[in-house]
Write a structure and sequence with these properties.
Strand content: 25-35%
Number of strands: 14
Strand order of the largest sheet: 9-14-13-12-10-11
Radius of gyration: 20 Å
Distance between the termini: 32 Å
Oligomer: single chain
Number of helices: 7
Structural class: alpha+beta
Low-confidence stretches: 74-87
Mean pLDDT: 91
Order of helices and strands: HEHEEHEHEEHEEEHHEEEEE
Length: about 260
């Protein structure tokens, strides 16, 4: 690890120690894929508290870590499962809905446009979670401490005047828009499934995997032959996210008809 990654690991270990000593839940900032990989690959024995992660919805890419005091496990409804447990923890996350003041005269804004406008307000990226663009509006997940500041100060993105509203919690079964893709592959390897998901050459897919740009369930994977399991979430930096939904059938030629969800 480089110096910056080592400092992050030390900071996470200290948060776990604080949760253990003070008996409180401690939260990190939003972590990106590389930072989440550092968390997941750090030996568990270095953390004095157990942890769960959440980014505001089930398929979030940028996530906060919550380190849990031992007393939390005494709760009757706590079963120790990371997913169900995280739903009960009061993460300091707020959802902001960003939309144009006048829909008739708004531009088509991209993820980069929204992020650029937020960074121009002097906000650190670690205070911001996922940004999901949906037509003329976007959903933004932010640390609670930044919600009011953004709602008050984000008034224009490029040439479009915008308004910001603090939204309600998303439904438990919320899922971003996606495109379902079906196709046959020779094997359930990471490289073959990614070739089905993204319209690029196999050599480019291999370069992305070997170049440390592919994460499966938040963990870095650099092996082309990594075998996927049904329900795996795969994130490819600068290309997008997919969920591998499994094999539908096997053809007479021994190929596998698979289905994936590619998020828009």
């Amino acid at each position: 690890m480089n110096k910056e990654e080592t400092l992050l690991q030390k900071r996470l270990i200290e948060l776990a120690r604080t949760a253990y000593i003070r008996g409180i839940i401690t939260f990190s900032d939003f972590l990106n894929l590389n930072e989440l990989n550092i968390l997941h690959t750090t030996p568990k024995r270095l953390f004095q508290s157990q942890y769960v992660t959440n980014g505001g919805y089930g398929l979030s890419e940028r996530q906060m870590v919550a380190f849990l005091p031992d007393a939390l496990y005494a709760f009757p409804d706590w079963d120790g499962d990371a997913l169900s447990g995280s739903q009960e923890i009061p993460y300091p996350i707020r959802i902001l809905e960003i939309g144009p003041v006048n829909r008739r005269f708004c531009e088509e804004l991209s993820h980069r446009d929204y992020l650029g406008a937020l960074m121009n307000l002097g906000i650190e990226r670690c205070k911001l979670g996922d940004i999901m663009v949906d037509g003329q509006k976007a959903l933004l997940f932010v640390k609670e401490e930044m919600a009011g500041y953004i709602a008050e100060n984000l008034v224009k993105i490029r040439h479009t005047s915008v308004m910001v509203r603090v939204g309600e919690n998303l439904p438990e079964n919320y899922e971003p828009k996606y495109e379902e893709i079906k196709g046959t592959v020779a094997s359930i390897r990471l490289d073959t499934v990614l070739s089905l998901a993204f319209p690029v050459s196999r050599s480019k897919i291999t370069a992305y995997i070997e170049g440390a740009k592919v994460f499966v369930n938040g963990k870095l994977v650099t092996s082309n032959g990594y075998r996927l399991r049904e329900g795996d979430i795969i994130s490819v930096r600068k290309m997008g996210r997919i969920v591998y939904d499994g094999v539908l059938s096997e053809t007479k030629k021994g190929r596998y008809l698979t289905v994936i969800r590619r998020y828009i």
